[in-house]
């Protein structure tokens, strides 16, 4: 089995690495947080002192980082990992970043004889823990085949949507639609409640009607409609408002770069920005409902 | 079994009446279109010369009309049906109309000893034909119980969401969210396609991810992604753009009446209005994607 | 000189009546507020016990009321003023109301031999006090000529924009554009300030550039950019957020009634609704800037 | 008097250079268009074979280019002008570009002993021809003083709004507000006309009311309301839709970079994007009114 380096052990990366260990892989990890590294070591990982040490001898390098600049910083530049990753290795970047950044790093990797795929995920922290993530992959088909077994240890669905960067584009399309759907579902529930409807009954109806979505069925934004939702625990946990804001910003940049119009997507971006300014940036993104329903 | 009067045999009312006949009910029908009446008669209905004749002797009166003014015109006023419907009868209005109008007609009905529920539907023409509609009911619980058997002959799910008018509010909440979701899904697909993605692959990924919805899975707005969608037959059939525009207008009025904010809902209303002005008012509402994707 | 009845002595009506008195007119006044009546009486008006008494013997009846329902309530119905206003009199309604309501009351007035014009105003409380209001008139040209001298005692500009109701439509067009311009100016100032610009210098530049407007030059939404603005006194005084919200609601209704699209106008409506929900409904409408700039 | 190099002789740069020549300056020009160079030569300029030749011996270098990438390409890189501009010279960049780009080039210039100010303009082609432009300047006060005399030969107002990049931020604030104001004015006129109002009378009223703006008074978007507007000549000439789209994109990037919300600004960006997709990208930006008024 391949030796794997895993860089970035946050809310997503941590459980993903744990699933690789469970599947029997040898995994060298690095993260700036000692606590995160310690958790991985307890699960069987080998700790590396820095990212360069982590990739030494690895056939597969997986990164799960917050934003484009972290990915560029990790791989490119004089002290970037591309200078030390062995030719013939494969990089799987699971971060959600700008498509242009994914293409840029992939080109630099290819120039050094290293394969790379962008493989951002859908499924959230729950999917990461359960090993049921969806991987949305951009890159060469052959590179994906090399990655498939490893991806299957962390997820359930794999979609190959195109060349390098395409995974990021598709992820942004999904998250943009999700951001709009969540905020629109919040508007609908707020409107119903303001007219005296029971949010639970309204949600049950919507969940089997044409407006059904992950936002009504799984992560309902109204408190106490479903158990185990961020909304039912003060909007804690889940997918942070400012992460959705970041993804909608990436979608807007992707649209502006080609003159596309995404009127609902950009309005949603502004709603999440206002929600952040209202002090809810660190809460789950479903807290955007509070913009239109003070009592939610 | 109750004798039923059915007023309004359009794209929805026609198949609904047919399902009542199939279930063995005696149904007297009226519609301004001779062709619609003829189809119902062929299926076993009795034709009435006018609405008043249709309700003579009926214990249950069902109406399925385009807008508030038609419902008010049918029941209220000097020559309205409330003057001839027998006390003790039950009115089931399945039209999608303003909640205030539903309340007004119900009050007038009650004053004459006639029960009434508002029971707008979700499920479209396909659901009407298959007898799998969802009924979203506002009114007294006892009145709903009187209607239940009849509703079950036409649909699968029945939600009792509150007092008279509440069915309309809930329907508007569903359709508002649906209108936003459809247009946002169109934006996401258009953004992906403009970046070189295959709309079919992108839709398949979204359909199992967090942005999944009726708009990705059932009525995908991109041509040739799914069979049997309006989009795959030139946006013909389905739920007309101008009907969605009407519903979003009703939602906006419901919001304005109580000072609520529905930023995405009202932006969507404007998108469907622009789509109508672009000459696509009679096409399926998923044609709104053409606003942001000329080649769709 | 005509005897005038003046109904509605609020922030606008009070100073308007005072200007009529200054011009030498005999004015009978009515308002639900004793204090408002007392102020008018101190300025020379005659107090009436109710609206019907106020219009007794008046050739001209002026009303300045909050909303459509007040105007309908005043003139129509069994105890409405149309039952007691003398045939041959002229009604000048200066309220900002729904165009359809203005038309309805005018028709009822005409049916009783009473002329009527809708004459909503622009210029705010400052313009009302200074007698520099702009009157935006709908109705017959002959009726406007009968009113002209009286209007000139209260204002500076008179625009005849069409038949009954047209004054209201034009007023809504103005206020809709104003509502958008104010919020957009707030966005621009907030963006500049967040990038380190001085709001005063930025405003001075904008005030002589292509984005110049009443919002940069007269009622700047940023505190302490101009003296004597609501923004510089905690957003008190001025034109209330909820009045702008009302006018944008009327504009939205006017658009929905004919299938028109006003995407920016309806988005602005939602911004003012959110500003109201944030507790700023009674403040000047320029406080909408606080939605995008917490420190403003 | 200083010797000036002028790079970029388009619709704006051409007349600006002509005004410098009129004021007696010695001007060496370069543009990729022979015709543009020939016009400048006929007005007294000296033609240079390329940009590097144009700046030889120049104390002041003025650039007026379409976008960030052109400015970066002109000054930076191995064959960029900074390698040949004489230390002690002053660069005045009048292009509208990203603030971050203006800062980057200024830093590189300073590192080589060259002063630089960003001085984007407001006033359009008419202002460029008449020498009445407004310059919105970011950079050191001392550098602005060196530039002042030259700027006064091309414009009327000079605003110093902050350090390098601040001129670009302020310009974007102005143009973002302008973009919203123009589209909102179009919505208001379209709404009025759809209700039977005369666009000329409505515009005259608005122009002296609280919604007055450059869009009602100078560049009215409705055809034949004012003479000499783009709208009155088929939306030709003026400030192109796609240039406004570019500026709104820069404003959106400036907002996203700091998490700011500009809901109206981004909606306007989408309206201009849709107007471009409708085939009106090269027309004046006031043609955005056609999105909501087919007959305009």
TrEMBL record, chains A, B, C, D:
Pathway involvement of the protein, from the record: Amino-acid degradation; L-valine degradation
Enzyme Commission (EC) number: 1.1.1.31
Keywords: Branched-chain amino acid catabolism, NAD, Oxidoreductase
Domain named 3-hydroxyisobutyrate dehydrogenase-like NAD-binding: residues: 165-291
A single GO molecular function term of this UniProt record: 3-hydroxyisobutyrate dehydrogenase activity
PROSITE patterns, sorted: 3_HYDROXYISOBUT_DH
Catalytic activity: 3-hydroxy-2-methylpropanoate + NAD(+) = 2-methyl-3-oxopropanoate + NADH + H(+)
Residues in 6-phosphogluconate dehydrogenase NADP-binding domain copies: 3-162
InterPro entries: 3-OH-isobutyrate_DH-rel_CS, 6-PGluconate_DH-like_C_sf, 6PGD_dom2, 6PGDH_NADP-bd, HIBADH, HIBADH-like_NADP-bd, HIBADH-related, NAD(P)-bd_dom_sf
Tree of life domain: Bacteria
Protein family per UniProt: Belongs to the HIBADH-related family.
Protein name in the entry: 3-hydroxyisobutyrate dehydrogenase
